[in-house]
Amino acid sequence: MGGASRQARLGPTGLGTACLAGVLVLAVSSHAAAYCRTNTCEQDQDNPNCGPDPQTGCLTGGKSLFWNRGCFSFSVHAAGSPRRHISYEQATETIGAAMAVWSNAQCGDAKLGIDAVPFPAVVCDQAEYNTDGPNANIWVFRDDDWPYPDDGRTLALTLVTFNVKTGEIYDADVEVNSYASPLSREAGATLAEIATHEAGHIYGMAHSSDPHAIMFPNYSTLTGISAELTDDDQAGICSIYPPGRGSKSCDATPRHGFSAECGRGVSGCAVSPPCRSQSTGWTAWVAAGLLLLVGRKSRG
Ligand SMILES: [Zn+2]
Question: Which residue of 23, 31, 176, 213 is most buried, as measured by CB atoms within 10 A?
Fold first, then answer.
C-alpha cells in the first residue's frame, strides 16, 4: 500500500491522471501482474457502471480505447531538444523505434494488426485536439519549463483524446520533460526508454502492475525499462489489435487532416491542457505520466 499512496501523491495533477492512480492502487492490491487498457471510465465518472474489475483491478464499465483504423501517424517537433542536444533526426529515429516496439509485436504467429506511420515534423508545441480543424499526433520536448505541478518527477506525459461513447482514439500527444530530465541513463531514463513507455499509452495501454512491464508507471533507475515487450505488454497490445482485425485500411491521416501548426481560428476550444475542463461533445482526454521512482540527481 505504501507504493500505492506514493503513486497517488506523485501523480501529476489533472482530471484523468487522478483516476489512473486509483486504477493502479487496485491493480497492485488485487493481482500480481497484469496489463490494463485505458478505459473511457477515466473520464466518465458519472457512469454508474464504471469501477474496478474485481479480478484484474482494471477500470471497466466503459469502452476500452483503441485506434479504429489500420494505422495512425506520429510527428516529432522540428526543434528536437536543444537543451539535451537531441536533434529532430535523432528524436525521430528514437521515437520511431519506440513506436515499432509495439507495432512489431507478434501475436501468435502473425503480426499485430496496426501500424504507426511517421508524418512530417510539426511546429505546433501544444498537446491539443482540434474538434473543427486539422490535427497532428505530436511528440514535443519541454526544454524551457515543465508546466505541471508534480515535483518535477514526471518524465513525460501522454494526452490521449478519445470518443467517450465508443473509446475510439482521435489524437495522442506526448510531452517529454527535457527541462528536468537529462534523458540519459546516468542521471535517469533515456529517451528511448521513456518513448517506449509513452508509446504504449498512445496505442491505448494503461499502466500495468507488473514491475517488469514497459507499462509499469514508475521508472526505476536500477532496472530501467525493457527494450522489448514483456509477456504482459505483449498480451495487452495483442488484445487491442489482434492480427487481421476486420482488415482495417491504413490511412494514417489525423482527423480533419494533418497540420504541422497548432489550431488557428477554429471555433470552439481545442481539447488541450489550458481547456482541460471543457471536454467538448463526445471527446475527452486522459493523461498518463511516467514517474521517476528512484531519485534523480538534480542537475540544471
Ligand atoms: Zn505511463
Answer: 176
